[in-house]
Amino acid sequence: MRRRTRIALLVILGVVFALLALGALPNYIRAGDPYYLTATPVDDHAAINGSDLDERRYPYTTAAVADATGDGAGRSEPYWRGYVGFKEAFTHSPFDELSALRQRNPDANDGEAIYVRLDNRYYRLTVTQDPGGTTDE
Known about the structure:
Layout: H1 3-24, E1 34-42, E2 48-49, H2 59-67, E3 74-75, E4 79-80, H3 94-104, E5 114-118, E6 121-128
């Protein structure tokens, strides 16, 4: 193999490795403030059928609803939003899930929250910084 070919091959491999790292590593960055998807039990409301939600596509939503017990609110694992917005371009977030759910059923949206129905129970989903507290999107 010629020297130029070897250098070109190393450069191509380096670029491929950098792109793979760029796609995988942002998920592990824990910078910025943590955000949670919180599911609060509510009375009957126009809602999205939660049994249709795939836990691989909606991990924050399914985790929050599964964590809600009785009259208590449930929450997802934290999502750390990066400082400069770099991470959001490469990772899945609770903000993405709420946006996707808003598109599924606009009637289940009240502006800052989405309503989901699962096993005849209704939940109000919001993104919060405080797991039991105020909405902050």
